[in-house]
Design a protein that fits this description.
The protein is elongated, with a radius of gyration of 16 Å. The longest helix has 13 residues, at 2-14. The strands form three sheets. Strands 1, 2, 3, 13 and 14 form a five-stranded antiparallel sheet that branches. Strands 4, 5, 6, 7 and 8 form a five-stranded antiparallel sheet that branches. Strands 11-10-9-12 form a four-stranded antiparallel sheet, with no helix packed on it. The chain is built from one helix and 14 strands, in the order H-E-E-E-E-E-E-E-E-E-E-E-E-E-E. The protein is mainly β.
Length: 194
Amino acid sequence: MHHLSIVLSLLAIIGQHVSGQTRDFSSWVFVLNGGPWGDWRSINLCPDGTYAVGFNLRVEQPVGNGDDTALNGIRLLCADRSKGVLRDLFPTESHSGFWGDWTRDKFCPSGYLTAFQLRVESRQGSGDDTAANNVRFKCTDGTVLEGDGTSWGDWGEWSGTCGARRICGLTTKVEGKQLGDDSALNDAIMYCCN
């Protein structure tokens, strides 16, 4: 059932405006363990000729007896590696939650991001829901990069890979501010470009 909701969400998202972009993506990759809350936000893509070479995360660290939100945002760092040294980085993100700070940048030693994995905490009933807590990316050179998120929840299966393509954009599913228990970022989809 979750797989069907992802497909239906993808079709609805594709019909939306791609934020400030004229670039086309050729496919997408997604995970099956995303959280249930929130809305899919706009698709944001790297500038033409660039692809994701790294990322950073917006994370609220554990607050103790308060309302934890954990992972709030994913920012892709886009560049053109064919120009040699990474000089010009173009950050791109979909919508982020409202809490936390941006963590340090993580980069593929060579190549580009091609697949991802989410760490997600399941529904907590009357407890504190955080949904997505961390993300890992796989690089085209085989390197696995793990974000500086929190440790609640479990890692799901890897998404498919972009194959001969590379990750060039994303959309996130984010729950807006609640009067009670906030979960912030719940899920993500990555887009692949030639």
